[in-house]
Amino acid sequence: MSIPFGFPHFPPSCKPKSSIFHPDFDNSAVCLGDFWSNTPSLVELIRHLKMMIGGERYSTQNPFNPAAADWFLANQSQLPFAKEHTGDLKQPPPLELEKTKQEFDVVQDSDFADDFTFEEETLEYHPPDQSNISQSVPVEQSVPKDVAPRPYILSDIDLQRFNLLASKRHFQELDAELSALPDTADSKEIRQLRKIASTAMEKGSALHQQALQLQQQDEPLKALECFQAVEKHVADFPNILEKISKIEHLLENETTEPDDFSDLQTDFAVDAPVAQKVESTPTRKKNAPPVTKQASVLEHKKGRKGKLAVPKFSRPLVYSLAGLVVIAGSGLGFLAINGSSKLEQSRSFLQQCTTAVKNQQFRAAQNACLDSRKASDSIILFHQAEVAALQQQIHSALNSQPLQQGLKGKVLFEGEYVLKATVSQRQELIQVLASGETAFSESDWLAAETNLRRAIELDNDLKILPDEELTRLSRQAAHAAFIAKLEAIENAFLQGNDSVDLAALNSLSDELNSLPAASAAPLRSRVEVILAKYQFSSLKEQADTLFSQSDWPGAMSLFAKAAETGKLLSETEPPELTDIRKNITRAELYSNIDAGNSLFADGRWDDAISHYQQAIAILKSSYQLLNQGDYQHSVEKLERIILQSTIIRDRQAVEILRGEGKFNEALDKLAVVMASITGSAYADEAEFSEILTDARDTSQELKRMALLDYCTTYLVENYYSFVTRNYVAASKDTISSPSAEFVKELDPSHYLFKLECTESGRGRPLKLVMYYSYDLNQDKWEFANADSSQ
Questions:
Q1: Contact in structure between 563 and 584 (CB atoms under 8 Å)
Q2: What are 115-173's pLDDT values in tens digits?
Q3: Which of 215, 520, 552, 783 could form a disulfide with 223 if both were Cys (CB 3.0 to 4.6 A apart)?
Q4: 292, 717, 724, 762 from 765: Cα distances, Å
Q5: Is there a cis peptide before residue 316, judged by omega within 30 degrees of 0?
């Protein structure tokens, strides 16, 4: 996770370090959607990522990984992958840690390697997915003798550390740590690591042996290549960097004074520090003091008490010996004086060497150091302790990193030695990087793009920035260029410049899609606003044309699109948006009214009423957009039309029911008609009063018809009891086929009916005819004379 400039306005950039099968993950980014805009919190983001990896959250619209999205949709029953345990967990007993010597990692040059590859033989190693493996370092626990130690399991092994050692090519250390594991610590990953480490160490040892042989054969260049190959195979091979440095130093100095470094030849055969160069001395006993040339001469001439022991020779011989002593003393004095002079001269040359190094005059510094060493080598007998110390200083100066790197054309820059010719480019790179980052943080997009592009251009020659940093700079430069172009178009709109081409806006949208999702998200709304301004004007113009042509559905559709587009506009256009909303309401209202009128004309009363009711609902929900007088008048008019439609519909239904003889149902429907009129605000109007009067008359008529229908039905259903009551000769087996009909109204409460049936069983069938009157008030039937029908 990396924090971008502009945080927290810009969300962090998240990138998986290992492959994750998830709809919102790919190898270069994680899609956060609108999470950051809703919850700009790093803590919540980490929890969100945890839930994504656990399968609790994922998206299926425009996924990074379509295959993962399909799998997640097809296997929702298996999600999430794991559920947290909420029960009480028993805490393990405290561990007793053994006191062990703490080890610290040492930062080496190889730690900065991007990858580990071999020239002669490539050992490919792919670290396993350790998302489900605990990375805890195993802790030894003191276990009682009577308790068996627990098994050594995979989770006790720090695979992450092993993988790190392998990636740095520290196979010596990796092999040692793997060898220390117990036999029970076995897995596919461990076996693979052991094989990698073993193969690398075998290859490194073989190359090391070959290098030593080449060195003994006086082939330093080939030996150096072998030693370098060893380091590329095993970065932590014992003393390998020291050996490489010594051979490079030897080869370098062979071009100046090769004889002065001949003492280093034997130094590569063993792993020991460089020995100081000393003069040969006589063989002496162990722990005996060192014997110098001066001391050996004097000691030979001393007697037992320290005086000169002169043999008893003749006087001429004595004089001769005395002369020799005087000459020897003079010579020793000359050597002492000359040694002091040479010592000062050597020191002066060494000081010149130091000054030249500081002034970056490295060839002059080397010559001064060589002169200093030459002067010190000429000092004999005297000042030997000072000479030894001085020669050590000379040796250190000659082999110092500033001088050695300077002779290669390199100088110290920002903590590392680089070619002097590249210093100015490096300085410019640092400057433009700082300027670009500052301009980016201050939203000076043109300056940011210019400086960041220049930094990338400089690094194309220098090759010093990591790939990840170059990728980040490229994205920042693209981001800055995009915003600069976007702001130029926005300023053109603010100034009322209509020369901006719609094709340029569309290309701007395409460029936005090429930006990383985290960078594009906050810019997308600004691009959409610009596009919306173009679309808004065009849609509104088309909608107004259709509205004037009474094409309500078409106008309503375009007005709705214009309003949707207008939501992205700034608050400077509320009047236009308000007018569009009014027009949408009017178009929708008129569309429903027209549809209702059309259905009304077709006699489709229910559909017509539905559209009229929708029109009223539109009016009531948008009354604030309409004139109050227009609103009230329109509602009353629509309610009146709905009442008329309802009356016509129900009266037609009454007539149909009456024609089918369903008088009671017809009465119920007619009651609904009268109730709708009396319950409305329009009952006193002449039109509806007349309808109400007519409905009441129809109701009385329907009641009479319902009564007559009831009576005839009753006579037919009970004909046997009626016939046998007045014709005792009849039996149930002899009479059949009853029918009844209304004859006339005797008075308002008495009605006369005729009952007929057929008698059989006595020869030819006979038709029996009887008359009955019904008393409405008493609900009573009586046998009537035939004369009553006259």
A1: yes
A2: 333 333 344 444 544 444 333 333 333 333 343 444 444 445 677 788 888 888 998 88
A3: 215
A4: 175, 21, 17, 7
A5: no
The CA distances from residue 687 to 640, 644, 693, in Å, are 11, 10, 10
| C-alpha separations of 546 from 455, 578, 579, 583, 597 in Å | 57, 18, 15, 11, 20
The amino acid present at 209, given as its one-letter code, is Q
Secondary structure letter of residue 78 according to DSSP: G
User: What are the distances in angstroms from CA 409 to CA 254, 367, 656?
Assistant: 18, 16, 113
Residues forming beta bridges with residue 410, ordered by sequence position: 419
Check if the beta carbon of residue 540 is closer than 8 Å to that of residue 564: no
Q: If 0-12 CB within 10 Å is exposed, 13-18 middle and 19+ buried, where does residue 439 land?
A: buried
Measuring CA to CA, which residue among 143, 240, 155, 151 is closest to residue 190? 155
- Is residue 436 within 8 Å of residue 452, measured between CB atoms? yes
Both structure tokens of 477: 């430069």
- Residue of 368, 406, 204, 381 lying closest to 297 (CA atoms): 381
Pair type for strands 410-413 and 416-419: antiparallel
Residue pLDDT, tens place only, 746-783: 888 899 999 999 988 777 888 889 899 999 889 899 88
User: Which amino acid, one-letter code, is at 644?
Assistant: Q
Are 543 and 583 a contacting pair, CB within 8 Å? yes
What span, in angstroms and rounded, lies between the C-alpha atoms of 626 and 634?
Answer: 11
E-assigned strand segments in 169-235: none
Class of residue 183 by CB neighbours under 10 A (exposed 0-12, middle 13-18, buried 19+): exposed
How far is C-alpha 375 from the geometric centre of its chain's CA atoms? 69
- Strand 410-413, strand 766-775: pairing: unpaired
Is residue 736 helix, strand or coil? strand
Mean pLDDT, residues 99-105 taken together? 36
- Scan for tokens 């490489």, then name that residue: 244
Q: Mean pLDDT, to the nearest integer, of 215-230?
A: 88
Q: Are 345 and 364 in contact (CB under 8 A)?
A: no
Q: What are the tokens at 250? A: 């030897």
Q: What gap in Å lies between CA 486 and CA 731, rounded to an integer?
A: 107
DSSP string, 483-509: HHHHHHHHHHHHTT-TT--HHHHHHHH
C-alpha 628/C-alpha 620 separation (Å) is 11
Q: What is the pLDDT of residue 6?
A: 64
- Range with lowest mean pLDDT among 236-245, 268-277, 351-360, 765-774: 268-277
Instruction: Give me the helix-helix angle, 188-216 and 240-254, nearest 10°.
Output: 30
For residue 16, give the nearest of 24, 27, 3 by alpha carbon. Answer: 27
485-536 confidence digits (pLDDT tens): 888 887 876 776 655 666 777 777 788 888 888 878 888 877 877 777 767 7
CA distance between the termini of the chain: 111
Beta bridge partners of 750: 747, 775
Alpha helices in 549-685 (DSSP H): 552-566, 574-601, 605-621, 628-659, 663-678
